[in-house]
Amino acid sequence: AQRVTQPEKLLSVFKGAPVELKCNYSYSGSPELFWYVQYSRQRLQLLLRHISRESIKGFTADLNKGETSFHLKKPFAQEEDSAMYYCALHAGNNRKLIWGLGTSLAVNP
Amino acid sequence: DAGITQSPRYKITETGRQVTLMCHQTWSHSYMFWYRQDLGHGLRLIYYSAAADITDKGEVPDGYVVSRSKTENFPLTLESATRSQTSVYFCASKGGGSQETQYFGPGTRLLVL
Q1: Residues in chain B within 8 Å Cβ distance of A83
Q2: Dist. CA A90–CA A82, nearest whole Å
Q3: Which tens digits make up the pLDDT trace of A63-86?
Q4: Which regions in chain A score pLDDT beneath 70?
Q5: Chain A residues whose beta carbon lies within 8 Å of the beta carbon of residue B106
Q6: pLDDT score at A93
Q7: Which residues are paired to B9 by β-bridges?
Q8: How is residue B76 annotated by DSSP?
Q9: B49, B43, B22, B56: which is closest to B87 by C-alpha?
Q10: Is A99 in CB contact (< 8 Å) with chain B?
Q11: With an 8 Å Cβ cutoff, are B100 and A44 in contact?
Q12: Does B67 score more than 90 pLDDT?
């Protein structure tokens, strides 16, 4: 079955500390993975796509097919990074995304 | 991001009433989606549409109806609202190519009393 797992509901770190939000997926084919972010009371917006291999707002994410993971990392967290982060998987020919339950990141001063 | 809008942004209604949430996008995207967002459940897909006059059920379609008579509009109707439908509803759209990025509306907060 196709599934996305974000094991942490809440992650709390101090400003300047490294942060890693975990995402594991289950899919036998070639996945396309995304990280979306939702700041307080705002719409969801795309943060990263694995195919772009880009760094956005200091965040990076590498697809590890061996571990079926797509963890989101940032070396030095900022208070403005506090948000809900969702990992999503596109698998197959249909156009739906499969979503994780989200991780709420709190960056404390 | 201003290309996809939702109305109303906030709605209070009573159990048993019919409610329609509107979604409009200006990109002529083929695909449109309706999600509900609830604590502990993340985002759940209600319905989606691949093109005008083509709709399909998502994970949690019961109690909802959609239509897509025009590419740019994708209204979601709660035929007889229930308290369990109290939620934040997000509409999203994406183009028809291989790019899978979905673009989200600002959301509608619905309270069913």
Answers
A1: none
A2: 25
A3: 998 999 999 999 999 999 999 999
A4: 92-95
A5: 42-43
A6: 63
A7: none
A8: E
A9: B43
A10: yes
A11: no
A12: yes
Sequential DSSP letters for A57-74: TTBEE--BTTTTB--EEE
Distance CA A58, CA B6 (A): 31
Q: Say which DSSP state A96 is in.
A: P
Query: Would you put residue B63 in left (φ > 0), alpha (ψ -120 to 50) or beta?
Result: left
Which of B42, B45, B103 lies at the smallest CB-CB distance from A101? B42
Q: What is the residue-averaged pLDDT of chain B?
A: 92
As a whole number of angstroms, the distance between CA A79 and CA A106 comes to: 8
Q: With cut-offs at 50, 70 and 90, classify the pLDDT of residue B2.
A: low
Higher model confidence: residue B16 or residue A96? B16
Report residue A46 CA to chain centroid gap.
Answer: 10
Dig out the tokens for A81 from the structure: 């990074």
- Asked whether the CA dihedral B82, B59, A70, B27 is positive or negative, the reply is negative
Contact call for residues B12 and B111 (beta carbons, < 8 A)? yes
Tokens linked to B94 = 């994406």
